[in-house]
Design a protein that fits this description.
Strands 1-2-3 form a 3-stranded parallel beta sheet, with helices on both faces. By secondary structure, it is an alpha/beta fold. The longest helix is centred in the N-terminal third of the chain and has 21 residues. Helices cover 40% and strands 14% of the residues. Helix 2 links the parallel strand 1 and strand 2. It is elongated and about 50 Å long.
């Protein structure tokens, strides 16, 4: 991957992590650890590859209304125990994650590297 991006003159890598890699979300320590490692990889690559004009960032989605999550989001558990703890009181839409990924690939984001951007309705910054 690095040689191709370097040869192009610039590049942007966008990893998909999870809010569970930023804060404890009761989804399991192994899941949270591996997602946190993805964000750390983005930080390390940002430093290692910056001289080659290659940027690396990660996106940490919260609860997103994907087809796989629809049943959960429509269920009583989400409405009663999860949504009230998300300051925006809803699940995110896949398009909201995609928009951040697209932005990170644009020249407008050319000075953003090594960051983890949470797309989570403020779940990761909300004190329970």
């Amino acid at each position: 991957m690095h040689p191709s991006l370097k040869a192009s003159g610039s590049g942007s890598i966008v990893f998909i992590s999870s809010v569970a890699g930023v804060v404890s979300c009761s989804v399991g320590s192994i899941y949270g650890t591996t997602k946190g490692a993805i964000s750390q990889l983005a930080r390390n690559l940002a430093c290692e590859w910056a001289g080659d004009n290659i940027r690396a960032n990660s996106i940490a989605p919260g609860v997103i209304a994907t087809p796989a999550a629809k049943t959960f989001i429509l269920g009583e558990e989400f409405a009663k125990n999860i949504a009230p703890n998300i300051p925006m009181r809803r699940a995110g839409e896949p398009e909201e994650v995609v928009a951040v990924a697209a932005f990170l690939c644009l020249p407008a984001a050319s000075y953003i590297t090594g960051q983890t951007i949470c797309v989570d309705g403020a779940l990761s910054v909300h004190a329970f």
